Amino acid sequence: MRGMGIFLREVFLKGRLFALGEAAGLSDRSALARAALRWVLSQAVGAVVVLGVAKPEYLVANLEAVRQPELTDDDTALLGKLQASREFADERARQHDFFLRGFV
Q: What does the angle CA 73 – CA 83 – CA 94 come to, to the nearest 5 degrees?
């Protein structure tokens, strides 16, 4: 991917991430937001993250995650639990199908 960057958007899937987290038994939205943001920032390719926030304190919380962008063990465990849920698998399949329909 020489000379290319990836533009990632909707880190929180317009709030869908939090519904998926609740379905997986993850009620700490702040921890889930930090983990998701750090996951995006940890990808090997260049990424740009655009955050839209409803409240100033959400922006401050997101900036704190950016200050320490490395995934922690807690982040990895939380994301693992999320990814193991049926709801996450269904959402991933929907996103995959949507992406393919747009380009095929």
A: 145
Strand (E) or helix (H) holding 5: strand 5-8
What pLDDT digit, counting tens, does each position of 39-89 carry? 888 876 666 777 778 889 988 888 888 888 889 999 999 999 999 999 999
Distance CA(35)–CA(70), nearest Å, equals: 9
H helices of the chain, in order, are: 16-23, 29-41, 56-67, 73-83, 86-103
Classify 14 in phi/psi space as left (phi over 0), alpha (psi -120 to 50) or beta. left
pTM of the shown model: 0.79
Average pLDDT, the chain: 85
